[in-house]
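Hello forum,

I keep getting stuck at the same step: I have a sequence, I want structure tokens, and every attempt I make locally crashes halfway through. Rather than fight my setup again tonight, could one of you with a working pipeline run this one for me? It's a single chain of 516 residues.
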Amino acid sequence: MAVSNGRKVVTTDRQGNYKLPVDDNTTVFVTQPAGYQVPVDEANVAQFHYNHMPAGSPKLKYGGMKPTGLLPKAVNFGMVTSQATATTEQECIIGGDIQTYKKVEADYAAKGAFKDLNARTGYDGCGALFIGDIVGDDLSLYPGIRELTKRLNGPARFLPGNHDMDFDAKSRAHVYDTYRANFGPTYHSYDVGRVHVVSLDTVDYPVPGKSYNGALGSKQIEWLKQDLSRVPKNKLVVVAGHIPLLTFADQGSEQHQIDEVKQVYKLLKGRKAVAVSGHTHSIENMRKGDSMAGWQDIFGVAGLPFAHITSGAISGDWYTGRMLEGGFPMAVQRDGGLPGVVTLDVKGNRYTERFTVRGDKGADQMQLGLNTPAYRDWYRKNKPATGKPKPGTVTALADPLKVSQSDLSGTWLTTNFFMGSTGSKVTVSIDGRRAQKATRTQPMTGEGQYVGAEYSDPAAAQEQLVHGGSVADRSMHLWRQGLPTDLEVGKHTATVRGTDAHGRTSSEKITIEVTE
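Reply #2:
Ran it on my machine without issues. Output:
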């Protein structure tokens, strides 16, 4: 099996022996093979590493790493045989941005996504991978996160984000010491079934002129090259990172995407692969061939070579918005999506993706709204030129589901299909009429972002402008359909049906009212 010091990857002999060089700031870790399971600690966090820092961290606000003492004669990694990791059918949970800034937000997460995960089974093999921004800068909240993972029915693994750093560290070598003490190496890999999961550290810090940058660095690229060289070509490779390789939300930003994206693509050429990420607090299900202008302009990438999924955030829009009966805030995200987690359902080396909204068992897959001239006027009047709206400063739009007959020609029924993507289809039937195919607002064919009232999610934006949070003024998974101009005065029911790229269907109904 493969063992690494973060620079070099070696393979054990038949007795499990290996040799690796270490210095006084090294984490040695093993790649769990399929059919075996590493132990977990009292918080359910997978234990597959050994930190070696004899003198401990330099003085850090949040403690960093305690002295580990002298290097032992051997560092051995225990594991047991496991049918759960051997089976070729796996459920891999991907959770983005728990990002608690205070203790009460850990309680929101406990009542939301973690309550859902506690009620689920079937992921005891692949477990749950939390992809960065575990907390929001205050690393003293890490123990609260470990309390949350005790609720899981599978092992928890982590990778770091830009809010998981020891910002008072004087060098790059120690910026993740507190993270490493709590969760392990900043990058690593593991196998379940016919899946190889690679967790990457995608945050370069400090960076002159920037707070941080999306990058891997030459050391990690070399490790990735060696790691993948031991993976059979017939396995599915899941490449996980906090900052996305590429993203719709920040498609024009160099900082919020990965500098070495083309190098990663080259290393994965000829393999079945999918990239998963967080960071943007939005849901994105981007398919092979999707293209945005920013990717071409900044990185020279004309189209995605394989699917990229941005998981959304467990915190949603940083726990903003009105409180719900479940004991957590609405927290509608910048794309109009709701908080939740992504699951990769794997059979062999193929997968299907699904999104589970926090507090829901999986039925909630879309959000319907009405984009009327009155809504657009209200939106333009109330959306701040910069920043987020302050809760309680905007009066709600009166009768958002009403439209006058004279405005029918300028009105769309909108569908935010959370995991909608290229290859998805949305149809709208009003009062039982023949279903009409809705148009996706962002085709992902090499254009820039379409932004503004016409491209916004009315249901999300009204929630956000009134109760606070980011405003869903753009989305890569929004569809719209113009209303028939011959609708009579009165109430009408629209039935919306969404079919994803895998042929799975969801449906919702909405009642609108036409006035004189």
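Residues 83 and 211 are 44 Å apart (CA to CA). If your local run keeps crashing, start a new thread with the error log.
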